[in-house]
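Translate sequence into structure tokens.
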Amino acid sequence: MTKLTICIPLEPGGPPPNRLLHELLKDPRTDIDVIVAPYDATCDHLAELQQWACRERRLEVLPPAPQNVARALLWLATVATATGDWVTLVLPGDTIDPELADILTCLEQTSPQIDALAWSAGEHLQGADDGDAGCIEMEKDRMLGAFFQWTGSRQVPDMPFGLYHGAIRRTLLDTIISTGGPLSWMTPLPQYEWSARILIFASALGFCPRPLSTATPTDYAPQATRSARGSFPFNASLGVTAAVAEIQCRLLHELGMEWTGFTEDFLQACMLDCMSERDPDRLAQRCQSYVDAICQMEDGRSALAQSFLPDLLNRQLDAMVQGLAGVASAAELIPDRIHSA
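Result follows.
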């Protein structure tokens, strides 16, 4: 069986995967196979990709998905066809080191209990001579706190594990797919739902300090939607922070647990999500949307929404006028009273 399956779902308006495929498949000895999932029959370069797959046994091009398929379902259908011992997912404009397959082989020998691997993010890949590929086991409780309690987060949880730019064993993949329910994968940000499910179901987590992939930066555009949980006030229409909170709440509900992520760290993440908006009108709208959502929470800290988000709005607008707005200055603009609530 192949050691690693690399899944590459294509998306509307995205670049073709040709450059990435050339890098992955140039060495015939690399123990990988690659699955490309076209979004639609009108996908650019589809015929070229299909001809390439006829010549290269390690490349599979799936039949085009329906034009209106949700991103999360496209990802799920793609990884469900993987046959490798380990599975990862990247997008066409990303890079990933094919030597990951060798690292996973070594990991199986030194730490057979690990079934999810993350690695250091970098602006460029490092060869074996440039960085230590030695993997260490990470404390699962610490990662659960970082993700579900928002410990040390910014706009999104500071937690590296996932399927997107992470690798999981086939056994863990099968568990995640088999435990899905009617509310699963109802999100425009499937990478965070994979992260949540991997954290919950993984037996052990490993981390490689060597940068093994690079991701193309993207900005999240809020989408008009409601939470599948109905009454839960945070959803993907507010911003990326609320979208992740909705994923957490929905998944925990499926598992019979309550969402306990309404923490000071989460409130700070909401503030940072507001501050990421540069347009004054959209900034005011986003702040008000977060105020409304926070005020619907039963926790006593909901009262903070009456003061700190309008205060944030005023500070951010002043900073924008002065040319100081941006994530780099966000920490200086956070009101001190959030930490003493």
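Note: DSSP finds twelve helices and ten strands in the chain.
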